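// run 5 | inverse folding | seed 20
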């Protein structure tokens, strides 16, 4: 009975270790995702195309591209922030699992032998 309890505590410590590693990997994945960004739109009219459309159309096209780039910039900032916050959450969960594993191991080590 005693060895069965000891083995189950060892298994529980191993499970906490696995949870800690998985959450650390997920945190790392989110940190890597936070480093990625969508590139802004770079667009220029060739001379022949520029002559075919009016100045007001060119102005409207430049305004549209400016608004799209502003949207892409806001999206990149929001996405980066969300990934970093998620990574911090995963790292906190990983540390909690590691702490739980250490508590179990401490109970196993400090238990007096009879």
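// decoded
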């Amino acid at each position: 009975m005693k060895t069965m309890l000891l083995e189950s505590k060892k298994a529980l410590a191993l499970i906490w270790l696995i949870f800690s590693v998985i959450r650390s990997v997920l945190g790392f994945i989110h940190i890597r995702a936070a480093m990625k960004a969508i590139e802004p739109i770079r667009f220029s009219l060739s001379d022949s195309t520029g002559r075919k459309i009016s100045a007001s159309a060119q102005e409207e096209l430049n305004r549209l591209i400016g608004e799209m780039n502003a949207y892409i910039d806001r999206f990149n900032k929001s996405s980066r922030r969300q990934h970093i916050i998620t990574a911090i959450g995963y790292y906190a969960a990983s540390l909690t699992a590691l702490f739980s594993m250490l508590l179990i191991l401490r109970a196993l080590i400090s238990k007096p032998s009879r």
